[in-house]
């Protein structure tokens, strides 16, 4: 997000999204490759990519047989790999603790030599699609391109967040009104999936961004940090969020759950969940900071999926084609082609 003195995201100098190369393994890089074991046998590649999306995925390979399922991930930097091992090792997934560790180059090489090409994404059953608008089945025409709706994009999840932060969930209905040709500032993408969060680049949104960021910048230094006992589900707070090449910026968030010395929070203006140290959260409970509705909203690509790298702070130009089949507040987007 913008901070005072940063460039206007609407300016011509902002970056444009470019097509990525097909997913492939780019070689064995020391300390950037991690092993993820003890995975559920029925886990899908897009689920693994979603779990590790905040660490910057360069490539992903899943392997399984009748007895076990595991994966190799190459991350963007050694620091990201170290953090992934620290935060994700032992985390429960469908009732079983994941094993996340660095892998010896020799062992990785032996596995990759016998690995098969990455298969197509598996079809998601209707019951896993996050359907909350009354639909009960997937029509045959859509079965070939069905992706599970990410939890933080489902209306059932957003309803609770919006009620907790803003006192109502009217925002869910208001975002559907956006239509036609638009420019979108991407705040987060989901690797190997069509879903993403973005800010609509229009005058109204730009004024809201200026007003919000100015208020947060002026108040940040004087806001107290939350005490450990105050970090509970539903706490409204301020925390630093990764915004891409520019580093991080203070932004509004809502606590989902404390986990030991960490807290899982949802950044309402980015549409992104993150695990942060408990002692890094500032108190932000004054109503004046919650008068502006969320800046970002969920979209999905009408065709194609995003590459394994997380894309942030880039501009997409294209046309909105109406609500998605599963969640009416998620708008379908067609990227403009030159």
TrEMBL record:
<dbReference type="Pfam" id="PF00076">
    <property type="entry name" value="RRM_1"/>
</dbReference>
<dbReference type="InterPro" id="IPR000504">
    <property type="entry name" value="RRM_dom"/>
</dbReference>
<dbReference type="Pfam" id="PF00567">
    <property type="entry name" value="TUDOR"/>
</dbReference>
<dbReference type="InterPro" id="IPR002999">
    <property type="entry name" value="Tudor"/>
</dbReference>
<protein>
    <submittedName>
        <fullName>Tudor domain-containing protein 10 isoform X2</fullName>
    </submittedName>
</protein>
<dbReference type="InterPro" id="IPR012677">
    <property type="entry name" value="Nucleotide-bd_a/b_plait_sf"/>
</dbReference>
<dbReference type="GO" id="GO:0003723">
    <property type="term" value="F:RNA binding"/>
</dbReference>
<dbReference type="InterPro" id="IPR035979">
    <property type="entry name" value="RBD_domain_sf"/>
</dbReference>
<feature type="domain" description="RRM">
    <location>
        <begin position="32"/>
        <end position="105"/>
    </location>
</feature>
<keyword id="KW-0677">Repeat</keyword>
<keyword id="KW-0694">RNA-binding</keyword>
